């Protein structure tokens, strides 16, 4: 289960990279409601969103490593919090119907991990019970 969760988190983070690599998927710098509602230049919003997307992507990669036990378990909660908040802010800046699933994923992650204290059972680094010696 931890491996599936790690793969899901990597995919979720990877989708954010589409902002940096694609001009149309799932959103573009010109799509921000904030640029239309304020005098903030679209390039400034795009730069901020690009930074948030990188934080989310790298954060979700680290979260995936923590999920399988390759990073210390104590990092799980703060990494999820930072990654999901960065992702959510970037997605809210460019909210479209295509960003709603990502926002839902971020909300569920924050609720489960921060509010409920959930953490996965790691694949590596967990203690195994000693087997009794039989003669």
Please characterize this protein's 3D structure.
The protein has helices at 2-16, 18-21, 33-37, 42-68, 76-93, 100-115. The relative contact order is 0.17. It is built from six helices and no strands. With 135 residues, the protein is mainly α. The chain is elongated, with a radius of gyration of 18 Å.
Give Rg in angstroms.
Answer: 18 Å
Mean pLDDT: 83
Please outline the major beta sheet.
none
Proportion of β residues?
A: under 5%
Helix content: 55-70%
Structural class: mainly alpha
Spans of at least 5 consecutive residues whose pLDDT stays below 50 are none
Count all strands and give the number.
0
Keywords, please?
about 140 residues; 6 helices; mainly alpha; elongated; single chain
Short synopsis of the structure:
With 135 residues, the protein is mostly helical.
Write the layout of secondary structure elements.
Elements lengths: L1 H15 L1 H4 L11 H5 L4 H27 L7 H18 L6 H16 L20
């Amino acid at each position: 289960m931890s491996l599936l969760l790690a793969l899901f988190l990597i995919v979720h983070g990877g989708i954010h990279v589409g902002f940096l690599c694609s001009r149309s998927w799932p959103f573009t710098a010109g799509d921000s409601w904030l640029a239309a509602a304020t005098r903030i230049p679209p390039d400034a919003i795009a730069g901020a969103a690009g930074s948030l997307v990188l934080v989310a992507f790298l954060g979700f990669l680290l979260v995936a490593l923590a999920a399988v036990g390759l990073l210390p378990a104590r990092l799980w909660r703060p990494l999820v919090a930072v990654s999901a908040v960065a992702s959510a802010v970037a997605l809210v800046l460019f909210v479209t119907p295509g960003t709603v699933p990502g926002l839902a994923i971020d909300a569920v992650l924050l609720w489960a991990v921060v509010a409920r204290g959930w953490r996965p059972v790691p694949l590596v680094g967990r203690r195994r019970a000693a087997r009794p010696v039989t003669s």
